[in-house]
Amino acid sequence: MGSFSIGHWLVILAVVVLLFGAKKIPELAKGIGQGMKDFKKAIKEDEEVKTTVDKVEAKPESGAAPTATTSTPADEKKSV
User: Fold this and answer.
1) Residue 64, SS3?
2) How does pLDDT run across 20-44, given as a tens digit for each residue?
């Protein structure tokens, strides 16, 4: 019940070839490889975006911060 021997792998390979055909197997392998390539590319892009966002958030804001204006009683008399 341990690992598969070479005979087991040959039987599995024969069954796969019978099920999918010899022409279909390279297409399947190409599709799997392309999917893995796209997945790695997406992860790399996601990490780059995250790094960029972290850098932007870490920068101090330039200029003075907006302040709230308060009215004084003298200002209220002028506007009435």
Assistant:
1) coil
2) 888 888 888 899 999 999 999 999 9
Phi and psi at residue 13, in whole multiples of 5°? -60, -45
pTM for the predicted model, two decimal places: 0.46
Place of tokens 């709230």: 68
Tokens coding 63:
């200029």
Tell me the C-alpha distance between 48 and 56, whole Å.
12
Cα 71 to Cα 77: distance, rounded to the nearest angstrom? 10
Beta strands in the chain, from DSSP E residues, in sequence order: none
- Which class for 4: exposed (0-12), middle (13-18), buried (19 or more C-beta within 10 A)? exposed
The CA-based dihedral angle spanning residues 27, 30, 32, 34, taken in that order and rounded to the nearest 10 degrees: -140
Domain boundaries in the chain? Answer: 22-58
Q: Which residue has the tokens 């039987």?
A: 11
